[in-house]
Design a protein that fits this description.
alpha+beta; disordered N terminus; Immunoglobulin-like; 5-stranded mixed sheet; Pathogenesis-related Protein p14a
Length: about 350
C-alpha cells in the first residue's frame, strides 16, 4: 500500500515561511529586521516626584503660673493657729451702689462680690487661694459668730502675694451677745427698721476693744477726742475698705453693761421727730441712735473693758465702745447716705 502523504500547496509555502519569521523573530535579538525597539534607561520624558513638605512643629503655649494669695491665720490674742476657717477672695464691693442690694439676709457691701474663689485654713493656719488674674480683691477670713471676720482689700500681682500672718479675734460671750442685741435693736427700735445683718469686723473690733481699755486704764480720757483717735486707727488698718466710720461710747456702772449702753443710745429716738433716724438732725443727743440705726453701716466692732475704774462722782464704771464702719461716701441712696461724724459720748 502506498504511504499517505499530505498534500501541501506549494503556493502557500512563502506565506507560511513569512509567518514563521515574523512570529519567531527569525531567531534574532529583536533589534534588527522589522522588530520593535526598547528605549535605553535615562532617555525620554519622566514625571518628577513631588518634594515632601515637612510637617510643621506645633507651637507650645506655655501654661501660665497660678496666681496665688497665701498667708497664715492666727487668733488675735493667743497667736494660736486657726484651723478650718473659710477664706474667700472676690470682687471689692462698689460702695456707691452695693447698698441697693442690702436686706436682712444679704449685705452686698459686706462680702466679696462674684466671682469669688475660696479656700480653707489648714491645721497650722496656712491658706492659699488661686485667682484667675492679677488685680485688687476683697479678702475675708471667717468662722461663724464666735470669731470676728477679717475684711480687707489685697492687690495681687501676677507673681502672687504672700501676706504673712493675719489675726482674727475670738469673741467673748458678752461680745457675741452684744452683737445680737445691736441687731435686735436695729430691727425693732429703729424707725424705719434697719437691717439686722451686722457682723463683727476684725479691724473695728480691735479698735473698739483698745478704746474701751484705754479709757478704763486712764491712758485716754472719756470723750470725743478718744473716739476720733480710735476711728482714725481703724481707718489706718492695712487694706481697710471703708475708711470712714461712726462710733459711740458709754460708761456703765456694771459688768456686762452693754445692754444698758444700747438702751441709752437707742433712747435718743425720743429726740427725733416721729423717731425717724433718716430725717433726724444729727446732734449730741440724737447721733448715737442715728449712727446705730443707719443702713449705711456694714460692720461693727464692740469693745468692753475687762476691768472697772474709779470715776468720781459716779463710782466704779466699765467702758463700752462701738466702731461702726460703713459706706459714708454720700453717693448711696438718699434714704441711707449720711456724713460721717464723731459723737459726744453719753453716760
Amino acid at each position: 500500500m502506498r504511504p499517505l502523504f499530505a498534500k501541501v500547496s506549494l503556493s502557500l509555502l512563502p506565506l507560511a515561511l513569512a509567518a514563521c519569521l515574523a512570529a519567531c523573530g527569525g531567531g534574532g535579538s529583536g533589534t534588527s529586521g522589522g522588530g520593535s525597539s526598547v528605549l535605553p534607561a535615562g532617555t525620554g520624558t519622566a514625571t518628577p516626584k513631588p518634594t515632601p513638605v515637612p510637617t510643621p512643629t506645633p507651637t507650645v503655649t506655655p501654661t501660665p503660673a497660678p496666681i496665688v494669695l497665701s498667708g497664715t491665720a492666727v487668733e488675735y490674742t493667743s497667736g494660736a493657729a486657726l484651723s478650718g476657717f473659710a477664706v474667700t477672695v472676690g470682687a471689692v464691693p462698689v460702695a456707691s451702689t452695693c447698698l441697693t442690694g442690702e436686706s436682712n439676709t444679704s449685705d452686698a457691701c459686706g462680702v466679696p462680690g462674684n466671682p469669688s474663689y475660696t479656700g480653707t485654713t489648714t491645721a497650722s493656719g496656712t491658706f492659699s487661694v488661686t485667682v484667675p488674674a492679677a488685680g485688687t480683691y476683697m479678702l475675708t477670713i471667717a468662722n461663724g459668730a464666735t470669731y470676728a471676720t477679717l475684711h480687707r482689700s489685697v492687690t495681687i500681682p501676677a507673681a502672687g502675694l504672700a501676706i504673712g500672718t493675719v489675726k482674727v479675734a475670738a469673741l467673748s460671750t458678752d461680745e457675741q451677745a452684744w452683737l445680737a442685741d445691736l441687731n435686735n435693736q436695729r430691727a425693732t427700735v429703729s424707725t424705719p427698721v434697719s437691717f439686722s445683718n451686722l457682723v463683727i469686723d476684725e479691724y473695728a473690733e480691735e479698735q473698739a476693744r483698745a478704746e474701751a481699755a484705754a479709757v478704763a486704764s486712764g491712758a485716754q480720757p472719756y470723750g470725743d477726742a478718744t473716739e476720733s483717735l480710735y476711728i482714725g486707727y481703724y481707718a489706718a488698718s492695712p487694706g481697710v475698705i471703708y475708711s470712714t466710720a461712726g462710733g459711740a461710747a458709754d460708761l456703765v456702772g456694771a459688768a456686762s453693761g452693754y445692754l444698758t449702753a444700747d438702751t441709752q443710745w437707742m433712747a435718743e429716738k425720743a429726740n427725733c421727730p416721729s423717731g425717724n433716724w433718716q430725717t433726724c438732725t444729727f446732734a449730741a443727743n440724737t447721733g448715737h441712735y442715728i449712727n446705730i440705726s443707719t443702713t449705711a453701716n456694714v460692720w461693727v466692732g464692740v469693745g468692753e473693758s475687762s476691768t472697772s475704774f474709779s470715776d468720781p462722782p459716779y463710782g466704779n464704771e466699765w467702758a463700752y465702745a462701738l466702731i461702726l464702719p460703713g459706706d459714708n461716701s454720700g453717693t448711696a441712696p438718699a434714704s441711707v447716705a449720711r456724713a460721717a461724724a464723731v459723737l459726744q459720748p453719753t453716760r
